[in-house]
């Protein structure tokens, strides 16, 4: 899967990308720690610089401002997430197969967030911080584009309804998925391990029901049930 840079090109950006991964980590590790703990708006640049052993002058050599550093942190975290998830667009042979593959992808995302507390904290900081969402407008647009491709694939497979404009379907699904992600990020520790898979399936079913044609309701419920999920 091709990963595009999420931050706009700048002289500072080019200098930072020219650093080795180890040199980048000197900046990104303490920044990720601070942003995941406090969110973008409340994060202290002074604390990040203190832990990085750097000055403000040095930070301006690589980053335009705190927002620029935050984008670099999110970009690295997203690449780490994609490497762990190895998500692929569905190649369905039937509507049910499309939903089954989509549910499997959502389960992978949920499992990774459950196992990687730092990624979950960063995701939660984005959901809860309007300033972070504004800084990551380009990143959010990229996610929307990926969801659009997924819904188009679903339409071609006969799994997604055709009676509503594509952009309305995408925005509705994106909002619902963000709310589900936010809930899991905030309640992860309260969900028992043996309940996690079932709850994830039910959450996926809520989103899929909005997107599927009305006459697929019963078939979709069966496809995403815990027992039928293991059937071929």
Largest sheet: none
Q: How many beta-strand runs?
A: 0
What are the secondary-structure elements, in order, as H or E?
A: HHHHHHHHHHHH
Using only CA atoms, what is the Rg?
20 Å
Structural class, by secondary structure, is: mainly alpha
As a percent range, the share of strand residues is: under 5%
Low-confidence stretches: 1-8, 227-232
Helicity level: over 70%
Number of helices: 12
Cα shape: elongated
Number of separate domains: 2
Mean pLDDT comes to 84
Distance between the termini: 27 Å
Describe this protein's structure:
- This protein has 232 residues and is an all-alpha fold.
- The protein folds into two domains: 68 residues, Tetracycline Repressor, domain 2 (Orthogonal Bundle); 138 residues, no CATH class.
- The protein is built from twelve helices and no strands.
- Helix 2 runs antiparallel to helix 3 and helix 6 crosses helix 11.
- The radius of gyration is 20 Å and the shape is elongated.
- It starts with 10 loop residues before the first helix and ends in a 9-residue tail after the last helix.
């Amino acid at each position: 899967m091709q990963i595009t840079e999420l931050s706009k090109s700048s002289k500072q950006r080019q200098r930072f990308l020219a650093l080795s991964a180890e040199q980048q980590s000197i900046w990104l590790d303490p920044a990720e720690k601070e942003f995941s703990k406090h969110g973008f708006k409340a994060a202290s640049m002074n604390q990040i610089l203190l832990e990085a052993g750097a000055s403000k002058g040095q930070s301006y050599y690589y980053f335009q401002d705190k927002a620029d550093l935050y984008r670099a942190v999110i970009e690295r975290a997203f690449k780490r997430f994609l490497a762990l998830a190895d998500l692929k667009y569905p190649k369905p042979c039937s509507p049910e197969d499309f939903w089954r593959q989509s549910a499997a992808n959502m389960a992978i995302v949920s499992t990774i967030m459950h196992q990687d507390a730092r990624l979950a904290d960063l995701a939660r900081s984005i959901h809860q911080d309007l300033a972070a969402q504004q800084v990551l407008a380009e990143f959010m647009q990229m996610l929307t584009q990926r969801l659009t491709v997924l819904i188009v694939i679903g339409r071609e497979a006969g799994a997604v309804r055709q009676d509503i404009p594509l952009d309305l379907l995408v925005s509705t699904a994106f909002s619902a998925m963000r709310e589900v992600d936010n809930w899991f990020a905030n309640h992860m520790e309260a969900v028992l391990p043996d309940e996690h898979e079932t709850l994830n399936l039910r959450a996926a079913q809520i989103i899929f029901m909005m997107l599927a044609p009305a006459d697929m309701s019963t078939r979709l419920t069966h496809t995403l049930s815990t027992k039928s999920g293991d059937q071929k």
